[in-house]
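hey so u asked for the seq, here:
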Amino acid sequence: MSVQRFSLLASAMLFFLSACSTQPPVSEAPPVQTDAKPVVEQPATTEIPPHPALQLASFADLPGWKEDRLVEAWPAFLASCQALRSAEWREPCAVAREVDGGDEAAIRLFFESFFEPHKAFNPDGSDQGLVTGYYEPMLRGARKRGGPFQTPLYAEPPDLLTIDVGSLYPELRNLRLRGRLVGTKVVPYLSRAEMMQSDALRGHELLWVDDPIEAFFLQVQGSGRVYLVDTKETVRLAYANQNGHPYRSIGRYLVEKGELTLDQASAQGIKAWYLANPNRRDELLNVNPSYVFFREEKLADPIPGPKGALGVPLTSERSIAVDPRVIPLGAPVFLATTRPNTNQPLRRLVLAQDTGGAIRGAVRADFFWGFGKQAGELAGRMKQRGVMWVLLPKDRSTSGTVQ
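ran it, structure tokens below
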């Protein structure tokens, strides 16, 4: 296919395919809502421009900056440096390699010398947003279908087209579209319901697991581990691709239907509803038309987390998913929020190393809790308010505002 024809196809697809980040949705909690009121035409003189997304601040503005144990964030920052190639990161990353990673004072001095914090704002000028959590789950499965292992996890199908629109239109960076060819036309790829009601994915099964709702939440998290009972091995399933349909929260659906209250719509509450309503399970899962495909990876070392959108392993409680249209992937971010279902402060330096379909806006983060059951309990209950400051290299910003 020529570049010209590919460009025309990409333009056409902009009208009916949804934008997808390099990672799948990573939180079942309801995302921050934007203003959905009808637009009313007004004279130009009365229009209020959106507030700048990032605005220059100072380290004195960061609550808990002096108390945070930066040594715990340092390995995650060095991991970001492995992936950052642009000129503004060259000097700070080169200097970072010479810093003693065990010296708290030296690390703090490094950040204060080479970076400036920029506070994140919503378009209406407010500075608080939603902070959810995600983790790496463990499932039970097998390489062959049989017994309780009846739910497949699929590899990326060969007919799924992924169009990187940003390579054709720089103003649309971070925008990828998915579709498939039918004859000579590009059409949207199949939705979750369409795939589950057909044999479209037959032959592309990676593994079989014993729990459909856990398989669904594996897709929400974006990656996970599976213990294979037939081969006695544990493998990691990493995100491979997504079908291009927009993510829709099944928790929000249950709230809108009056099945759960907002407080009950945690991952734990959704799973409990699912088990109590066996006749409505397909109805619930098919609310979300988005579908995630995986690839299998060897789990040589169980300590590092899965790779995020930046391409580096995530660090437990020091990595977050962000909207890369606003916050640069790889950047340090100081996050001021609270622990799940409490008012206990959670204030620390984290690294923007992942993205997600439900992560939209400047003041929006998904906090990576790590691997296992305890991490899952925390992630499933985390729907907190938070404030964020993005640390950018000093020579990058001179105007005090970053677009």
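The chain has two domains: 3-27+50-248+288-402, 249-287. Residues 26 and 221 are 4 Å apart (CA to CA).
lmk if thats what u needed
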